[in-house]
Please model this.
Amino acid sequence: MRNRFNRRLPIPSPFLAWAAGSPRMSTGILALCVAVACSPGMAAPLDTASPSQPYLAFNPAAVGIATASGQQLTASFSVTGTDTPTATIHYGFDYTAGAVNCTASASGQTCTVPVSFAPTLPGARKDALFLMDGTAIIATVYLGGVGQSPLALVQPGIVTQLVSGPADGLVQSAVDENGTVYVLSPTSATGSNVYSVTKVGVVSVVPVNVFGPDGIAIDGAGILYISPQSLTTQNNALVTWNTVTQTQGSITVSRPGTGVAACTLQTYLVGVAVDSLGNLFTLDRACQTVIEIRSNGNYVVEPIEPAMNANPSFIAVDGAGNAFFSCVDTINELLAGSELQSAITNPGDPENIGLAVDAADSLYVIPRYQAVGGVAQLPASNYQASQAVLDPAAPSPFGLGLGSDGTLYVGNSNGNLDKVDRSQGLIDFGQQFTVGATSAPQNVGLYNGGNQPLTISNIALTGSGFSIQQAASNDCSAGLAMAPGAYCQVAVTLTPPHVGTLTGSIVFTSNSLNNPTSTATVGLSGYMYGAWVIALPDPLVFGNQALNTLASLPVTLTNTGYAYSASIGAPSVNNNAFTAGIGNCTGNIAPGVACQLSITFDPAQAQAYNGTVSLTSTGNTVNQPVTFDVTGIGGVPVASLAPNLVVFPGQNINSTSAAMAVTLSNTGTGTLTGIVPSLTGTHPSAFALTTGPNACLGTLAAGSTCSLYVTFTPTTGLIYSATLSVSDNASGQPQTATLLGLGMADINLAIAEVIHTADAPVLTPSTLLNIAEVIHTTDAPVLTSVLSIATTASGLGYSRVTLTYVGAIVLTNTGTASVAAPFQILFTGLPANVTLVNATGINATGTAGSPYLTVSAPASLAPGQSVVLNLEFKNPANAIIHFTPVIPGA
Model:
């Protein structure tokens, strides 16, 4: 049962004093001189600014939303001077600043900056907006909001040691949004009691002057707050360190002479915490009070109840602004914005020497005088019972810090700082002694460290010999929905199938961070003494090989054993088409080392070949048979499609044509396999694959043919094109053919006939010369070499809207060399009164009056490549349209 006490006393700001370097002096000349290190008497050369309010408080928002969908608030500043300042976000993970907009005012300028909130993690999201004059910060506004999502964390996680520090140990720590940890040491030979460790493990000494610190916190602007410990002198100030400007300051608290906070004892501040809006919380141990120092300069004093034996020491604040603080034998909670205070743990529990709270409102504490090491996790559903112990092997843990991503940092009395990474996990079964014997189960769990329900969608296991068992309690299963702060677990066993190193994994898939496919992985490992060799790839696939020719491929043998080398025996194979050589697998192969066998394939007949390679590996008196399969196919397929251009006659819209066949031929010596036809290109949906006699299936024997059938269904009156592609195992695949069809709407069948002469002949050099002589110099260029180009025409459709006939002509390079664009195609012999509407121009000489089209794309027409030219004719007399295509130089 919680005991609640109501009493609260607001204290006006004159009872607070700030020294230079405090964030609450972040505006005006004094802060400016701190930022740029002004000398005494030196005038500040920069503009000054003050915000209209010290913070922007955003509504809670879902993690993962787009910035454009996030709430936008505006910060306003009064700025002296006429220069337009700039704005930047300190951390920049959750907040985005827009452009600064300034308007003139009586005292200088009023500048506004829009800020958007799109959280990346659940819980309180700390940051700050800096108004800048050049590289100097002239004003700061705290940014606070709460991200909403589940957060899957693996427990117990993976523990690594970040720092091996001073002999007197490392205690409390604070973690900024970049993942940099600031950790305290009670005493230090370096002259500083604060170390920093970046996310990549770079350790530095923070040059702040503080004696015997026992509490530390960091705000969104990068300001460290440190409570120095002193039992002999008055301790009424918090030390500050600006990690951005590298300056030290302090915040001094002076008590009023009357009221609840009227206390004649010396002030003794211990513990410190800060929320996302820049509000500070600290404890006065001498007078048994909680002090909230607000970012606007005011503060509130709350007496700790019951005062007898309270002896407060550590404090933490959650995303809602609720304060948790530890006393001699209990932890109290002070609800934000109210006078309600309650003891949330059992009276008589051991005093805690560390305290943190996460987005799920679970507490992390280190009970003093506990029999074993580690950090106890107390869920909000029941603060009186520990749900799990993290970093249990920590010797004499002395303090902790918690990152917003759930990473826990534990300081130890021996000077080490442990990192508990809960984004992943590891179960090491260690040495196993008998093949086939099952180990004792080990547990690993998933904890919801977010503030929304977490749903597990799948639990996947990999690795030979590992097995998931039902846990004795709080069993995880697919479909399980977990409330914030809830924890489930699975039991895992190892039954070694052989000696050597054994590895595997468990992958939890959930909606962590509002991502339905988020995964968290737990590595699995164990070992037995002995050598164990694996062969990869298995099977070894040669594919198609020309008859009576030799191919060679390697197979890698790896000793995955533990502590013992492997000796590889001579390999043999049970099919004469293959040979197996020892390669470089001579001598002893150490654990973790690989070597390669040499395998050859020499087929004599056009057929499929299969074989098995066998050898023996010896290590630790164990003879291990090693086998792997080999496959190959005798003969090489050669595939082609014919024709490579298929032109469908004019087809009425919304009707399906008869099927047209394209022949797939295999002229090689090997079987064509993996035959998969598909339609691509501009209008693939207008065409469809269908069936017919001798239709192609998945394979095609050497020397054989099969047919692919295509139909055409236009939906409107235009020219349709697509590509029929066939993928298979032949070199140069896919094979392709161009499909062309004309959709006919409002067709005048009586005049839809096209008379088309034979394809233009290949011209001789003398003929080429004669044509070149009559081409006007301003016409499209003549081809510079004798090439073969074939033409194919479609039918014509008539549009009653445009009163024109539409069709197409396809040019195909049937030669052996590429044709460079641009080049010209003439349309000679058109009847009188028939006009090519889309002509590039009219030939000036020679075949004067003949329209022409200039082909400019593609830049080069490769052998076998085609290009489609659309045609549009006016034919007022309804004459039969006929023409002869002429390509100068072709």
Notes: The chain has two helices and 77 strands. The helical segments are 28-36, 765-774. The first strand starts at residue 4 and ends at 6.
